[in-house]
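Lay summary. Proteins are chains of building blocks that fold into shapes, and those shapes determine what they do. In this project we predict the shape from the chain. Here is one chain we studied, written as its sequence of building blocks.
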Amino acid sequence: EWRGEYYANLELKGSPALVRNDRAVDFNWGDKAPAPGLPADDFSVRWTRTIHFDQGDYRFFARADDGVRVWLDGWLAFGIRCALRISGNGDFANVGEGSHTVRVEYYEHLGDAAVNVWWQRTDIYHSWRGEYYNDIYLQPPPRLVRNDAAIYYNWGLGSPGPGLPSDNFSV
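And here is the predicted shape, written in a compact code that computers can read:
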């Protein structure tokens, strides 16, 4: 489980207002507080977990409203400040076999609160996993999932696949 340290401020400062174990970093609190005693806006969370990785290259991803940073063994994998966008930055070359510490730092400023973090190994895939959505917000579930040999498309006025519109879709 993830050790979650919840702060009643944006900067992860002082003592946490709440410490608990969370099964995953996958939350959509909407306009509600993450727990009693915490504000619905202007809070932050630090999750930490030690995880066994097989040797290989990995890419980390996050979907967050408002901002998130992901660290691997104290190395900043990436940081984003956005509204529910998915972002990944670079592959980790040769992550060694064994236990590694993953740390996620999240903050919520105004409006809805949501965060989701995951990773996938990149050196075992020979194609791109395409998740196609029928809106521009990457709202789950995807309408179509397929392996694409390359990211090089010109659909013109057509749709990228069955069940998808020709406009206002995302991948």
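What the prediction tells us: The longest strand covers residues 56-72.
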